[in-house]
## 1
Amino acid sequence: MKRTEKIKRYGFFNIDKPSGLTSSTIVNKCKWLTATPCGHLGTLDPLASGVLPVGVGNAARLFDYFLEKEKEYIAEFTFGVSSDTLDSTGELVFGGRVPSEEELAAALPAFVGDIDQIPPKYSAKNVNGRRGYELARAGVEFELPSKRVKIFGVELLGAAGKENTFRLKINCGGGTYIRSLARDIAAALETYAVMSALKRTKSGVFGIETALPFSVLEEDLPVCELEKYLLPTESVLPFETLSLVGKNAERFFNGVAVEVDEKDGVYKIYREEEFYGLAEVKEGRARAKTKLC
């Protein structure tokens, strides 16, 4: 049954995605509940759980401002096994030794910094107009080029309590594939490994400690109750506010670049008391960059 009552304000849901659901399933649920277009800010594989920010309404236009934000994951890598998907959901092939905790810890510093990483073939990477996972499922042979990613830190947390499995905390930039990291760390130890569990605990300003359990969305709350969990758009944007008054403000909101004293960068803009969007200052002139109202 289609909902007709639309949510009255826009912003972000910080959702704790459970393992086993796709990111699009979460987004579609938000669309249905709010009767408003929605979009997530960085997908999670079905196996993965944790922080999935979902922009509601025009807040989804801000995707580009979250691409380079630091992310934190708690991952489990199982050694002595490989798979076509690089995780435990694929076709598993057992073989290869299992390193000691000391060996694994000694290998991790080489993966901190700017590193080159080949994405998994079972991914959403575009290959001549088709997704990599589509080609891989169809048995098509193809290669993906390596990409430069940033790893801020990799910490071994110890054995995961499962056979041949270790738990790691990984802080990285956007676009990093944790599955590929499992493959590459294992290769450095002359063995194999798959990612067997993953939880995203941080995505920019969104943290797991304040994330909304998906079970709350499954309660099909009325819009008035749902709005209590909506984070205002301006509250998650790490930009200073640009104040405009008088004729400067009038000209700016009519689409004219105006002279300002602020340094170059992106700023939040308010029109009276309402959050208007983002402005960009360049060489002493400010103009509207992303309008949200």
Note: Residues 11-68+206-235 form a domain with the Pseudouridine synthase fold (CATH 3.30.2350.10).
## 2
Amino acid sequence: MPDDTIHVCYCGNKKIFRGLLLSALSLAMRTKRPLHLYILSMDLHEQNPAFLPFSENQIDILNAALREFNPQSVAEQRDLRDLYLTMQQHNKNARNMYTPYAQLRLYLTELDNIPDKIIYLDVDTMCMKDIGELYDIDISAYEYGAVIDNIGRVWTDKHYCNSGVLLLNLPKIRETHLFERVRRRICEKWMWMPDQSALHEFGSARLYLPRKFNEQSRKLRDDTVIKHFCKGIKVYLILPLSYNVKQWERKKVHKKLKYFCFDDIYEKFDELEQKYDMDK
């Protein structure tokens, strides 16, 4: 029988485990096929005491949660500390508004036993429909697929994409050396949104995906597959005001965003939190 597993990559550290668990639960609860999650992390406690990899206990909790919905699903953590430190010794973007963990996805092409096709998701994403709808898109002629950035299209370039959801074709990326060039640019030049901007600069074969795969606005649509809880702008009277509500800020999700479509996921999360020590 053909392998129908959907491969997904997250990056992060121990501190944001609850966000990772919520996002992963949304995948598991909305998707019928087995999931294989690749969790990229590392220990950088010398830079910041909070920069620690997910604990073995947290990965065990994640696996237990996934297998409630499909016994074939699995999550594994990869330690990229040595690789990151070796390749990014002179990284001019090691300290900016984003943590170094956001750059770990750029090392997927350097890892063993990684599938040719993989979805990358920011931790602040929640799945509303079957993620297979995204995974099954033909990406064979492209390096990656991405959705236009809701803010960047106005302030940067109409073709500027958001990198919080990426459908990656790793053989093509290796062929064009895209990630190598992006990593080099990050080392050479400080940027406000480093790897996202470098991907825009060097990407030569990009598939523009429908917004339903990375909905960045406040309004959810009937066809939304992935909601991205990224920073946004709301116009109040004539003033543009920024907001930044994450899915783990449940009261704000209910009160400010008026989202109640994730309540079944919150309920399952609460069950797990009562059962396990998530901070261990």
Note: The radius of gyration is 18 Å.
## 3
Amino acid sequence: MSPYDERRVKIVATLGPSSTGRDRLRDLLQAGVDVARINAAHGSPDERAALIADVRAAARELGRLVPILFDLRGLKIRTGPLAGDEKVPIARGTSIEIVNTPEPTTATRIGIDYPRLFEVIQPGSRILIADGLVELLVERIGDGVAVCQVGRGGLLLGKQGVTLPGAPIKGGALTEVDRADLAFGVAQGVDFLGLSFVNEADDLRNAREAVAAHGGAQPGLVAKIERPEALAVVREIAEVADGLMVARGDLGVQMPPERVPRAQKEIIGVANSRGVPVITATQMLESMITQPVATRAETSDVANAVWDGTDAVMLSAETAVGAYPVEAVQTMGRIIREAERDGPIRTATAAAPLPGQTEPTIAFADAIARAAQALAEVSPVEHMVVFTLTGSAVRRVAKYRPTPPIIGVATDEAVARRLNLVWGVRATVVPLADDPDALFRMAGRQIVELGLATDGAYALIAGSLPMTRQSGRTNMLHVRALGT
């Protein structure tokens, strides 16, 4: 069995200069990439369209369904360019001026490209630049200038990211630039949109309305939790999101970094309790940007994310601009498999019944998903096959982290691709048939032909009877030998 098939936790890889070209993409997919992430902040629309086409082509060549996560940039506040060619030294304890226009950065004055800057900061506010490398403490504001003392110094490049901890920034989840990128993503048929700097559940609702206005296939929405405001209402966000991301980079500068591990566990726990896929991201194998092996601390970090209950772990610069992208994916896969060596990770929140379900159809479907997991533990079934129209039945079964691998059978390719982000799921597409027995035989043969199971292997099948085109009505469990 290949490394791709053995593990339950998925690998998301960010694409960039180190991972472009169909041959390199094929290498990454064969190494174990399950989801391709494309950052809207980089490249032109034509370059991003070509990259999407290359991912689809490489996946087809390998007989794979690979979802694409198109990550919107959100309200990313940046400094201005450099005044010269050299990095600018910012010395601790010195005084420096800040203006709210993107003028060039010098040793005594920094431009910040955010016109509303002076509306959201005040004396005592902190301004963090370059992921917190430089810390400025606001002393006074007047005449279009904020005078700050440098609390932590360093060497600055141009156009560095700026974080304003505690600042009441609203409307950052979907900027005008994001709306244009959103339209591009929908037109390209991407599978997920990553929403940056989400504050509340309404940001997801507004984004869904914007997506619906473009018609066509509707991508899932992944809410990136990177602000304390979002962390405070993560349960409400999870109720309306199609996925969560533990965006540890920005979260670690928006709040003290020592709080991030606890936040990670909380976000994953919320996602597990609701059966929402969750991605753990940022600096997971950071040293592999420049070296071919991971540090012991990074190895422990990835393993702990698996033990926390994450659905997926993400590589960022490691695969986008790193020197060892394929090795980083292979390393990630080995860590996951070792962490899962004693069996699937089933956290207490994943094992608990779906909370707050009063609608009878959903309550019955959730009970069947729990029964499927329990039955799989005491019977010789080797696979769980779940038939679905929208993907909800598969996600519901995956919530309970059954021991046998889950094979999602969808009637629509876009639904099947999205399911490949979910813990423990491999998906395929089979046309809907009115006769359940015919459908089970057809799906079983295809599953065997694709190498997802061996001929004659017993599977526990979940679905709905009658086989209608109405979703959300899982009401059936059936045991069958695949391929027969």
Note: The domain at 353-481 is CATH 3.40.1380.20 (Pyruvate Kinase; Chain: A, domain 1).
